[in-house]
Amino acid sequence: MEPLKRILTLILILGSLVSSCVTVDEEGNPLDERKKNAYWNLQKLPEGPFWSDKEKDIPFLVVGLPSELPQRFVLEKVPSAEDQGRLAAGTAYAAGYLLMSMRERGADADYTCSPEFIYNSLNGGKNVGLEILEVMEFLKGVGCADRSRFSIKDPFIRPDQDAIAAAHDHRIKGFARVDLSRPTHIMANLLEGRPVIVTLQVSENFLSLDDMEWKKPEGLPVGRHTVALIGFDRSSEVWIFQNSAGEDWGHNGRFSLHRQWFSRLATQGYVAW
Questions:
Q1: Cα distance between residue 199 and residue 211, in whole Å
Q2: What is the pLDDT of residues 87-97, one digit of tens each?
Q3: What is the CATH number of the domain that holds 100?
């Protein structure tokens, strides 16, 4: 059997952000760094996004750019970065805790969308990741309860009927895809006040990022992870994101990624209103 087929990869749950990350072969020996880093090649990786057949039926939201485009822009009143811990709940935090809280606080300053409510409603009692589309459909049909109604982190406990009824007061009116291959579409939505919820392919070094810039992926891929795109810097050609790994990760919970890598790593992107 070929050596690469015999490699056993230590599976990490996104958001745990352990300080050491080891990939071993079948004898338990660390994998050669040259093999790990050879996986990522900017020129060879296909450009995204990568839509499912169901997603292709969702329309794009096209918004016009203003006549004067700022060099740098970051959304205001973004909730502080929280930590999803060992739950694969990145989508619930990005689309729920961040997007929904920002959207609803205009009418209710004390409201905080419960990512636990979303995650526990959709995960089927398992610690599994969620797609952006299913979360958007849930936010439109059911909504998101305030954390005062439901904040249980145990993924096996589902919200009760009172929490579900309370969620109906906080629903999005609609959602759409964003053409991630066109920077102007992303910038236009941000300038309209909409965070763009994006799923990225991430690597081992993303898990322990301790700086603002995620320069490039290194190590083996560890799966897909959903974050909120909240700004841009045209001079540096980077997108600015907020993660759900707490404020000790990255730069106060945020990171930037160059557009070239973004075009390879981004798989889906949505906005809601």
A1: 20
A2: 999 999 999 99
A3: 3.90.70.10
